[in-house]
Amino acid sequence: MDPSKVFYGIFLLIVLSTRKIFQVNCDTEETMGPQTKRVAPVLKQPKDIEEVINSYLTPNSKLAILLDYDGTLAPIAANPNITSMTVEVEKALHKITSNPKVFAAVISGRGIVDVQNKVGIKNITYGGNHGIEIQNPDGSRKDYELPAEIQSNYTELVHDLRRQLAKNGAWVEDKRVSLTYHYRDTPADKIENQRLEAIRIIESHGFRANQAHFAIEAKPPVNWNKGEATKFILEQKFGKNYANEGNLKIVFAGDDTTDEDAMRVLQGIGRTFRIASDPKMETYADYRLPEQQLMTPLLQYIANIYKD
Q: Which of 72, 80, 193, 305 holds its CA 20 to 30 A away from the CA of 172?
């Protein structure tokens, strides 16, 4: 056999093998790389959460902890006015936020005054209306300024939704720059028609309609969400290079689709937790908690690390 042909055959085999390996690596990077959704590992038991927290946090590290309120710090209720944190969650949150190494923020879809009153802890940065309103513990504010046209459209949107769809147990929660159309108490045979009509009305006024728990959230058509708010809050506190600060640990927890924007921003640089019962749900989060009650041990383990 011609030695040159043997050499060429070996060379071709090496090239093809290298291309195959490279393709596998590319595929892996595409599906598992930064800012991709996946079915996240589920933490079903407190001991699973303890293992994750203890392997990530140390008493000497600085911590930035950012949390949603409804469905995260407090269980979802039929009416948002009656939600509250459990005694255990409130106690753990007080312990965490009292440590000088910890920076805490609560970013909620509620209006900022509403979520401040619900949590009731002063040394926390609060984000209301999905971060459109931001207030620091010292009272300084950063509100995303909505164009006059959007503000006018919002006023009309609130009026139209209330006039047409505030019926059969459904109601409109006006949060000044965004709203939530609640239909949890609407009879089952009327929900779908009212839900679809609410989406139509919201979008006809130029707002974005997001599905929530037995509700539709209407958000202004601006490039601002919980992800942008999270970046702003962290940059404001730790500088633009916060993601590369080795001694800073970041934890985020949320239960809704609007929280995914923050989880996407933090993917690969923190530990994020999505509260959801659906085992097939894809998320930007690092871990899934199948029920809201697991927030209690999560916060308790963090409080135990930063107890001094």
A: 72
